[in-house]
Amino acid sequence: MRRIAILVALTLVFAACGEETPDTVRLLTHDFFAISDELLDAFSAETGFDVQIVRGGDAAIVVNQSILTAGNPVADVIFGVDTTLLSRAIGADLFDPYRSPQLEFVPPELHVARDAATPIDLGDVCLNYDKELLTDPPSVLRDLTSSAYAGLLVVPDPTISSPGLAFLLATIHEFGETGDYTWRDFWGDLRANDVQIVGDWGTAYYGSFSGAGGGDRPIVVSYASSPPAEVLFADPPIDRATTGVIEAGCFRQVEYAGVLRGTENPAGARALIDFMLSAAFQQAVPTSMFVFPVRSGVDLPEVFVTNTRIPAEPAVIDPEAIDDNRERWLAEWVETVLR
Amino acid sequence: MLEARGITVHYDDLVAVSDVDVTVGSGETLALLGRSGSGKTSLLRAIAGLVPLVSGSVLLGGTDLTSVPTHERGIGLVFQDFALFPHLDVGRNVSYGLRAAGIVDTETSVAAALDAVGLEGMERRSVDQLSGGQAQRVALARTLATRPKALLLDEPLGSLDPAYRRRVAGELSQLLRATAIPTVIVTHDAQEASALGDQIMVLDGGRSAVSGSPDAVWLSPGSTEAALMLGHTCVVEAHSTGTSLEVGDVSLPVAVAEGQATVLIRRATIVTDGGTPVTVAYSHFRGPGWVAGVQLGSAILEVEAPQRIAEGEKIQIGIDQQDIILL
Amino acid sequence: MTIGSVGWPSGSRRFCAEMRPSRLLTIPALVIGLGFFVWPMLSILSTALGEDPGRIISLFGEHGLRSVVWFTVWQALASTAAALVIGVPAAYALTRFDFRGRGALRTLLTIPFVLPTVVVAVAFLALIGPQGTLGIDLAGTTWAIIAAHVFFNLAVVVRTVGGLWSHLDPALEGAAATLGASQWRIFRTVTLPLLRPALAAAGAIVFLFSFTSFGIVLLLGAPRLATIEVEIYRDAALIFDLPTAAALALVQLVGVTAALLVYSGRQARSATQQHLVAGTAARRRPRGRDRLWIFIALAPALTVVSLPLGAILVRTLAPGGSLGFGAFRALAAVDPAVVDPLRAVGNSLGYGIVACVIALAVGLPAATFIANRRSGSSRWLDTLIMLPIASSAVTLGFGFVIALDAPVDLRTWWLLVPIAHALIAIPFVVRLTVPVVRSMASHLREAAATLGASPRHVWRTIDLPMLTPAAAGAAALAFVISLGEFGATLFIARPGGQTMTLAIFRLLGPGNASRSAALALSLVLIAITAAAVALLERLRAPGVGEF
After folding, report:
1. CA A318 remoteness from chain centre
2. Which residues of chain A neighbour C337 with C-beta distances below 8 Å?
3. Helix axes C341-372, C500-507, angle to 10 degrees
4. 3-state SS assignment for residue A60
5. Residue C460, number of CB atoms within 10 A of its CB
6. C127 by DSSP, 3-state: which?
7. Between the CA of residue A19 and those of A22, A27, C343, C355, C418, what are the distances in Å?
8. Which residue in the set C346, C350, C506 is minimally distant from A57, CB to CB?
9. From the list B71, B96, B143, which residue is nearest C182 (CB)?
10. Residue A222: phi, psi to the nearest 5?
11. What is the layout of strands, in order, in the sheet containing B183-187?
């Protein structure tokens, strides 16, 4: 009798873990993915597929966990693979290549070789500062090592956080690996200047940054689009953002989506990728995720136009170079800053 | 001289020792006799200062030790089961007290102490390799090495084989006499108490039931409990008619005061005539001669017999008036 | 809690030939042990040595890794020393004196040991984290880590040392006193040396737990401080440097195994024959200044234990000072795609039950085999079963992920999670039941046989009833271990299979709202764990295991 009770309990508990119905598309993504229910409903109505969103933490963790089980995925589509992670994911054979018909509306320089993954949005990782606490923001990265900025900067851990890694890459781009003053010298000076390292972007931005949360650090690694987000979410409403973007040390990140190799629902996965490139979805990208759409000819909302702009010269590092050196850079960064 | 006056010990709500006085002169040995739970070990521990007194005082050579902590009293205690330190070898066990007293060079003293108990050269031996008798002697040597001003021994022979015990008791008695300090020894064996003690005190329920020299207390134990502890077997309820004592269905021709009484019959002999007829319950050999047991009321009276007597046989016994004691 | 001591068995009961249990009993243990432990560990070995075997040597030339190993060792030593310094006086007070509230205090000191490490970290974050109750932010410092390790491990010291202490013959200390030794001298020359086996055992266990500490260091030490265990996770899951992770896992495996062997060797040698007495005989009511000493002895331990527990309660039930259930409201408001609390509770309970079933199915037959045989095969099996303790949870999870993709890809199989939990629980199940099987003296079986009982009947009427309480206790323990498991689960859980510990970890990420949700979920986990432990205490076989 008791044995039966246990069996029933087990069945109940794991019923939910059983076979997914084929008319569901599982989208594995990071915690900051956001889209309105109306858009998702429209997708369901149009294609007959329901979207089930599975969140796995920060983008880097989501991608790494997926790579550890590549070929035997827990979802059908992954979204949030960014520039810093793309070549690692492609190298691990994470994706089933797919060329969406919608891709023709995306500038060709954003396309991925052999269409392994599909670009969805882009944004710049930039230092943000709190305009109320800091009237004189640094103009170049090197300024951050001066005593005037001691104890002011908070950075998400680049080994865990994707914007953290982007900022690290920006510094590597800026200072280089050789010469009198390398990126490691810069980070050594930052450490001496009491830089705060926290786990992920959310902790840095909402936890330690004075401009958005309860923190006391007026400079944070975030996105160029963070100030308009502050305006949109302000309560009571405000006209202009109280935080600003520092243009030095920005890093351009493109976010990609891909069909996970081994998916049980390839048709649904492809439909979802098409949908993410559609005009309706792309139109919603700025105000729901605070990044820029990749699709040409999409109008930006007013709040974006007044509170941010796309930095003129963001750092760009070849994805191949990132892939070749990422582990070494991270290991060296850990040794320079954490140990 | 070791004196303990009005010793009272409580364990939580349990009265372990109640108002007991003890006086032991130098070179004298007092044997505390009692069944387990009678308070004899507690009394010993109280004298050593290991349990707090509710009331009473302990004096040694006229000095009041009542508020002196155990380790400064100078009273040696040999524990039941000896309490040898398992992590130290024989030599270090014996030198323990000397080191505690700040003596660094202990080698000769230890050798002498072991010599005195017949264990010369055993310093390096591990204590769990010792036989019971050896352990007992190590414990004694350990205590004597500190030159205590009084010595307490808790069931020193308790864990030895019965056959071995009597011989060790003799040796111990000699040793104690040589130390010439007041000694208190706890035992539950009446023969051992007589062999070792100049004085015997029988404890019952935490109180002193009787005390005195071994022969005196044997002759008049004063209470049922003391009588039984001292090795008497025949303690019975009897009814006296004034001219005879009715014990069960036996009528003894003894004149005691009329009424109901508990009596101790110390001794009886088989007589050929003029005795009291009784029935033999059993008979067996107990060195050097035979004994026969006869049922007397609820108790058994043992008499010396010339040879084995068949069970159920009628014999006559004679009892001396002075061997019947009213308790 | 009855975990038995962690060490190798040393029983020596000979059984007549027909009582020998079948080798079939070893099959479940061999399948699980070889398939889900030895095979993953071999994969780690090949990953570590794979491309360039010299790499392992060169790794230690790297300053960063050297400092990780150094930090791992010294924080473990410091934690062990602190746990002993605080725990031994508490053990003294609790075992030598009988006073009102003694039982309750003993239970209170035991609670932290059964708490999941993630919850321990949450409690310390609530106490000495950012905006903590004490008002000082020690998160990210070694102090926080050591304090949490002491909190977690005090029970080990109090139970192990107290267990032996309460059985020490008080006559030994009395004898020392009559020989003229002062109280301090008695403690130094008699009590302490006699306690050495328990001190060594407790110290070794605390060192091992602190050495392989993961959840506490990951959450309280981030981002600067890392044990080898945390570094393995960082390398494998974040930096994606699998060879380095594998090499570190290997280093940890070798180090911990060596420590365990040294420890068990010492245990075997230092088995001093002691005259032990029943526990209550040595305990007395306090009198006079005793009360002051009891207070002084217990105060540090009670402070270390009650402050974090208090902080978690205060912060959960009354966030911001006003009495209410704000934390639970925050938990209810969490995006279910990030954390679905009900599902996490359901998953944890389900995994717990399955892990429990697997652990018993493997552990009980193995325990029977080990207890009844003294052959080499029984020692081999025993070693195989004990090995997961040496490997650590993160290594296990890492091994699963890199090993189990061929011939059948099992990496996202839901059963992997309870299997990993069971592997961690099986050593405890075996340790708990082997003494009971051994204590079922063969003369009872022989008596039953002479009374006409068949072997089957003997098993049913003698063995089974005697084994049931220990088996039930072991089951509850396996369940508790599964509930609190974090390191292995972090690697192998699928997104839909999030457990409560993983959910708490996720909630500790961004923003303060979810931090209070993490507190609420921690409280739920504590409640479930407490219920399981209460069951364990009720089922525990009397006299089995001091600890």
Report:
1. 18
2. 53-55
3. 130
4. helix
5. 12
6. helix
7. 9, 16, 17, 22, 19
8. C506
9. B71
10. -150, -145
11. B75-78, B150-154, B183-187, B29-33, B199-204, B207-212
Of A16, A61, A200, the CB nearest to C343: A16
What is residue B131's three-state secondary structure?
Answer: coil
CB-based contacts of A331, cutoff 8 Å, min separation 6: C62, C64, C239, C241, C244
Count H helices, E strands: chain C? 25, 0
DSSP states of B140-187: HHHHHHT--SEEEEESTTTTS-HHHHHHHHHHHHHHHHHH-S-EEEEE
Sign of the C-alpha dihedral computed for residues A140, A142, A145 and A148 taken in this order: negative
Helix (H, G, I), strand (E, B) or coil at C1: coil
Paired tokens of C336: 């279910």
In Å, how far are A31, A63, A96, B289 from A55, measured between CA atoms? 6, 11, 21, 99
Phi and psi at residue C255, to the nearest 5°:
-60, -50
Spatial contact of C118 and C215, defined as CB atoms under 8 Å apart: yes
Within a 13 Å sphere around the CA of B191, how many CA atoms are in the beta-carbon half? 9
Backbone dihedral angles phi then psi of residue B244, each to the nearest 5 degrees: -140, 160
Residue-by-residue pLDDT tens, chain A, 339 positions: 444 444 444 444 444 444 445 688 999 998 778 888 899 999 999 999 999 888 877 787 888 888 877 887 888 999 999 888 888 899 889 999 999 999 999 998 889 988 999 999 988 899 999 998 888 899 899 999 999 999 999 999 888 788 899 999 999 999 999 989 999 999 999 999 999 998 778 888 888 898 887 788 999 999 888 888 788 777 777 777 888 888 888 998 899 999 999 898 999 999 999 999 999 999 998 888 888 899 988 888 887 777 776 667 777 787 778 888 888 898 889 888 887
Asked if C353's CB is within 8 angstroms of A213's CB, the reply is no
Residues 462-501 (C) with a CB less than 8 A from some CB of A:
491, 494-497
Residue B125 CB-density burial (10 A; 0-12 exposed, 13-18 middle, 19+ buried): middle
Q: Cα angle at C421 between C420 and C422, to 5 degrees?
A: 90
Can you tell me the distance from the alpha carbon of C481 to that of C518, in angstroms, rounded to the nearest whole number?
20
Q: Distance between CA A171 and CA A184 in Å, rounded?
A: 9
Q: What is the pTM of this model?
A: 0.80
Got the DSSP string for C342-380?
HHHHHHHHHHHHHHHHHHHHHHHHHHHHHHH--SHHHHH
β strands within chain A, DSSP E: 24-29, 50-55, 77-82, 95-96, 118-130, 153-156, 196-198, 219-223, 243-260, 292-293
Does A72 reach chain C within 8 Å, measured CB to CB? yes
B-to-C residue pairs, Cβ atoms closer than 8 angstroms: 85
Handedness of CA C128, C130, C135, C139 (dihedral sign): positive
CA distance C543 to C428: 17
- Please enumerate, as own/partner, the contacts of A279-288 that have beta carbons within 8 Å and a separation of 24 or more: A280/A39, A280/A42, A281/A35, A281/A39, A282/A121, A284/A35, A284/A36, A284/A39, A285/A120, A285/A121, A286/A225, A286/A228, A287/A232, A288/A34, A288/A35, A288/A36
Helices (DSSP H) in C404-486: which residue ranges? Answer: 416-439, 442-450, 455-458, 464-484
